Amino acid sequence: MGLIRLLLTSMARVSAFRSYQFVFLIVAALAVVAFYYFGTERQNFSTTTRRMKQTQASYGTGSDVITPDRAATTNFHVLMMFTKADGNSGLQRKMRIALSSLLQHASFQDGEQLHLHFVSDDASKGIGHQALAELLVNATFNYEVRFHSVIKLTERLFPIVKAMQKHFSAGSGTYYSDAIFFLSVAMHRIMPADIKRIVQLDLDLKHRVNIRELFEEFQNFPSGAVIGIAHEMQPVYR
Ligand SMILES: *[C@@H]1O[C@H](CO)[C@@H](O)[C@H](O)[C@H]1NC(C)=O
Questions:
Q1: Per-residue DSSP letters for 141-181?
Q2: Ligand 1 centroid to 55 CA: how many Å?
Q3: Which controlled-vocabulary keywords does the entry list (predicted)?
């Protein structure tokens, strides 16, 4: 039950911001996103990487690009949007609930590593980083935290999703800054090629089970599937 609930509540919402209103558009309901790369593009991933704990000796010096010897490691990638958190105590509180519950239930074996990816602006990154430093102190499994710049991701996303945005935005405009809400549908174009599978989660969740279980959903993907979509069950989106 816990897993089902997690799935249902973790669906990404694609929304468009206007000055005075939130317009919730398609409920893309993305629970699980898989990447299948065809290997042509090797893009320079514009992120700031910060390793909060050295988990394996072979990982080098903690620079931006990680090129570890991961042959023996199974990686579990989770991505969360964490932006505009500065001065937003409500969002900060939710983030702490989401992350502390995630970490509390998380369990991984030797040879496995949890990768937490955050898409953030500078101020939010600072806030997230501080919270994670506290929340991760007792973690007993291997993990890695990466913060990705929302500005740089938006820059790269916009040309890719612009055409789509037009059809899912209220009003006539295609707003540059809205492009980031389409991240889930174009992640395979902009994330590092070594990431084959990633789960995108909202931060207004409370986890009740081991996040690792969610990755079992990938076993239900037919070969060639690039995305997993589930029904949004919250009445507000119906
Ligand atoms: C870490 O463990 C200590 C000792 O058991 C506990 O007091 C503290 O609350 C834990 N911190 C977190 C973030 O779970």
A1: SEEEEEEEEHHHHHHHHHHHHHHHHHHHSSSS---GGGGGG
A2: 20
A3: Membrane, Transmembrane, Transmembrane helix
